[in-house]
């Protein structure tokens, strides 16, 4: 087994930034007027515009998560979730009528459920029988139309 490198970084290797500048303070813009982080070619007005673009509220963050996909209900008003048996006894939960980017929906469902899945056209397939979990996720999510 190879030996680990226990070398302590030298002062010249470390990042040179003010000690009061953290990522949170940089993104919030509270230190924008005190420190100059942007390259030499940018003016102070450009710097303030760049720093101020990341301040969003919690409600805006929730709506940003849902941007990109929507799930349309069926004509009878039901949620389009079905369950199929595949070859070799595999079970698959299928969410159909997905508009926008179904890849985002797939990522969120995979995180929530903890199972694999795939996007096929306008449908999202999740491995296993997860109808109840998918239904709870979609009813609690503002993506359902």
From TrEMBL:
Residue spans of biased composition, Basic and acidic residues class: 8-19
Q: Where is the SUI1 domain?
A: 79-142
Q: Which InterPro entries match?
A: SUI1 (IPR001950), SUI1_dom_sf (IPR036877)
Q: Name one GO molecular function term.
A: translation initiation factor activity
Residue ranges annotated as compositionally biased, kind Polar residues, are 37-46
SUPFAM superfamilies recorded: eIF1-like (SSF55159)
Gene3D superfamilies with a match to the protein in the record: SUI1-like domain
Q: Where is this region: Disordered?
A: 1-21, 37-66
Annotated GO CC locations = ribosome
Q: What is this protein called?
A: SUI1 domain-containing protein
Q: What organism does this protein naturally occur in? A: Pocillopora damicornis (Cauliflower coral)
The taxonomy runs:
Eukaryota, Metazoa, Cnidaria, Anthozoa, Hexacorallia
